[in-house]
Amino acid sequence: MASSSPASACTRRKKVPLILCPSCENKTVVKRTSKTASNLDRIFYTCPDHEKDGSGCNFWVWEERYMKYLKKNGLIAGEEAAHVNAQVAASLKNAGQLDETKV
């Protein structure tokens, strides 16, 4: 009998919609994971045409800002954004990257 406990269900992230890039309106944004030492495994969203050297599309945001954008534009419910933002804050706090004065 397969069932999930409420605790395990709460720790899973909900699927976040990938939208048409708000900057260039040309391609669908992609979800990526940072590999830098200062933000290791932190999730961000970017346009596939974004380049590190600043060329191409300029859309690039951390997960929490992307969630705020989706909520502001009615693309996700407020509870869903709050759930993901709480998980992001907890993981950043555990990694020592969260400045609690800005929360």
From TrEMBL:
GO terms for molecular function: zinc ion binding. Pfam families: Zn_ribbon_GRF (PF06839). Residues 21-66 form the GRF-type domain. Keywords: Metal-binding, Zinc, Zinc-finger. PANTHER family: OS02G0474200 PROTEIN, OS07G0190500 PROTEIN. This is GRF-type domain-containing protein. It comes from Oryza sativa subsp. indica.
